[in-house]
Amino acid sequence: MKKTIFYSVVFFLYGIMTGNAGDPVRIKNFREIYSSYASITGVGADDVEIQLVFNNIKDRLPKYGIPQEFNNNTVLAMIELSGYFCKKAIAREENQTHGERLIFSDIDFTRGPSQFSDFLISRISQRLAVMFWLRDVKQKEIEVMNSLFAKSTSAQDDSIDALKNILQIMCANYASSMAFLVK
After folding, report:
1. Is the dihedral of CA 10, 15, 16, 17 positive or negative?
2. pLDDT tens-digit readout, 78-137
3. Residue 20 lies in a domain
4. Each residue of 112-122: pLDDT tens digit?
5. Residue 47: count of CB within 10 angstroms of its CB
6. Residue 59 in domain
7. Does 131 map to a domain?
8. In a domain? residue 98
């Protein structure tokens, strides 16, 4: 009898702490988001600048990983944090050879955004989807990214800084999406 009461209390407390224990939808909590970004981008979790950003925004990220914690502040915090991770990854990869790069191996960092073709955007989209979403990108998603790229490139000049800005936008877009957040 005591064992039954003990297990009932444990399961009750688990249900309270995790929201609806029967809810199959879970989202990443703040620790999982941070470690996933570090692992995916290859940027060290011990980076001082990123730790500072994380400490400033972690209260806006999900604490327990329950869907009720998801709100606009969560999205904005993820965009901010992923933007820093992506920016650091781009800066690192800019100085690496094609074979050393993890994310943007198809990018020529000596040219601006004029190098983007639908094919190149599709390849980048595919790589980012596999890295952040753990699945292949769908054709409709590629079309959306091509449209986003067309708008982004038309609003920028053909400089290397513009290239890095566009790559950061694309990377952060995949990293802050629901497909990344939902477990």
Report:
1. positive
2. 999 999 999 999 999 999 999 999 999 999 999 999 998 889 989 999 999 999 999 999
3. no
4. 999 988 899 89
5. 15
6. yes
7. yes
8. yes
